[in-house]
Specification:
Rossmann fold; de novo design (two linked rop proteins); five-stranded mixed β-sheet; alpha/beta; 40% helix
């Protein structure tokens, strides 16, 4: 695309309602070209990168109330300011390494709207004054990888970016998307979590202050820069403004990725997807670091970081699994915990010994052989919390504890052996990678 062609592109009116991020790509499987991207979203001013960053951009993100969409829900503007204020040469990384097998929103976003993410990455680099920018994703995300490389080449030919973007791939491991694992891998090391502190904003890639933002967060920043914080806040709630991509699976008529205004109830979301296909017995919110809730308790909860935190639950990366009566929550939980045990970094006692022990106990419970060890299992779940080298043992403990509470009746009924529903798999649990595969 020539420079004159780009000048002729006119601003596009902000989308009304939803979807926003995939406004014209929700039902289009191919990636948007740069020309299609401009036709859909209009141009955006990409400021030059200068030392100290761009305070106006940081202010915009702070005022919007945007929280990271990668799982932790940390305020994006505060994260930016911490890096920009560091006063040293900085780095920015777009994180698309979805560790959660039940989530594929980031891969879909990159595959269909790569330029929106790359706009956001350039804006984030300008915000914090970074001259080094990376996009980080799992090797298994081949469609997203191809779409990103094509988009980067299109932008290079169009001379639109101030900062060159390097794509770094990670092993298909659950923990390789964790921030410190990302920092280590982008810097040329292994995709294993590192001890904290220091945090990446203090000392990240090659020792430099590093801003790590989830790719959906970057896409929201690209729309914020175009349409402003009042438009961003026109959906959602005061505490949880904006919208988010969610991956809905399980006993729902239309599963997949959809965009929802934060604050929407689970009942409303599922109704909009055609309702349930089986009477719900439980709902998993927040993925494999999240927690099970009884369906009756979850159905009218507002979806969002702030709202779910008050209920001791988690929005996480927008993973919602509706478990129907035709599935066994105890067997599903045992499979997830075995998956987590196989994907740990193997750097500490809770990971090396605690997670396999907990997974084994859950498997025996599901098989009707482990009720006598229930007190020991409950003790192990509490014992590993706060003792891991990274957050994985804490997440697994939270998941396991919620399963023991929500599926207490299943624990009792499985004394006689597995139930007929045990074989009906709902949650994906890929096999463990090779032990030495950390690059």
């Amino acid at each position: 695309m020539s420079r004159s062609q780009r000048v002729e592109v006119r601003p596009v009116a902000p989308p009304e309602g939803l979807p926003r991020l995939l406004a014209d790509r929700l039902h289009v499987a191919s990636p948007a070209s740069y020309a299609e991207h401009l036709a859909s979203h209009g141009p955006v001013t990409l400021p030059s990168v200068r030392p100290g960053g761009n305070p106006d951009l940081v202010d915009l993100v702070e005022m919007s109330g945007l929280r990271g969409r990668g799982g932790a829900g940390f305020p994006s503007g505060l994260k930016m300011r911490a890096v920009a204020d560091n006063g040293r040469r900085t780095v920015v990384v777009g994180n698309a390494a979805e560790g959660e097998p039940a989530s594929y929103k980031d891969a879909l976003l990159l595959t269909r709207a790569p330029h929106l993410v790359l706009d956001g990455l350039q804006l984030a680099a300008a915000a914090v004054g970074a001259r080094d920018a990376y996009l980080y994703l799992h090797r298994g995300a081949s469609n997203a990888y191809a779409a990103v490389l094509t988009a980067i080449e299109e932008r290079r030919r169009a001379h639109v970016d101030a900062v060159a973007v390097e794509v770094v791939t990670a092993p298909d491991r659950y923990v390789s998307g964790e921030e410190t694992a990302l920092v280590n891998r982008v810097g040329g090391g292994l995709a294993r979590p590192l001890p904290v502190p220091p945090r990446p904003y203090q000392k990240g890639v090659r020792g430099r202050p590093t801003l790590v933002q989830n790719v959906e967060t970057l896409a929201h920043i690209a729309l914020l820069a175009r349409h402003g914080e009042a438009w961003f806040r026109s959906v959602g709630t005061a505490q949880d403004p904006g919208s988010a991509l969610v991956t809905v699976t399980g006993a729902v008529a239309r599963t997949g990725v959809t965009e929802v205004a934060l604050g929407t109830t689970l009942r409303s979301l599922v109704a909009g997807l055609g309702g349930t296909t089986s009477t719900p017995r439980a709902v998993l919110l927040g993925g494999y670091y999240g927690s099970w809730l009884p369906a009756n308790d979850a159905w009218d909860l507002a979806l969002g970081h702030a709202a779910l935190r008050t209920k001791k639950s988690s929005f996480g990366a927008g993973i919602i699994v509706v478990l129907g009566q035709d599935s066994c929550g105890l067997a599903e939980s045992a499979r997830v915990l075995r998956y987590l045990a196989g994907h740990g970094a193997q750097q500490c006692g809770p990971c090396l010994n605690g997670l396999p022990a907990i997974a084994g106990s859950f498997e025996r419970l599901a098989g009707g052989r482990g009720r006598q060890e229930l007190p020991q299992l409950q003790r192990w779940v509490k014992l590993i919390q706060g003792r891991g080298a990274c957050s994985m043992p804490d997440g697994a403990a939270r998941f396991a504890d919620s399963a023991l509470q929500v599926f207490a009746e299943e624990v009792r009924s499985h004394q006689r052996g597995p139930c007929p529903q045990c074989a009906n798999r709902v949650l994906p649990t890929p096999s463990a990678p090779q032990p030495e595969d950390w690059r």
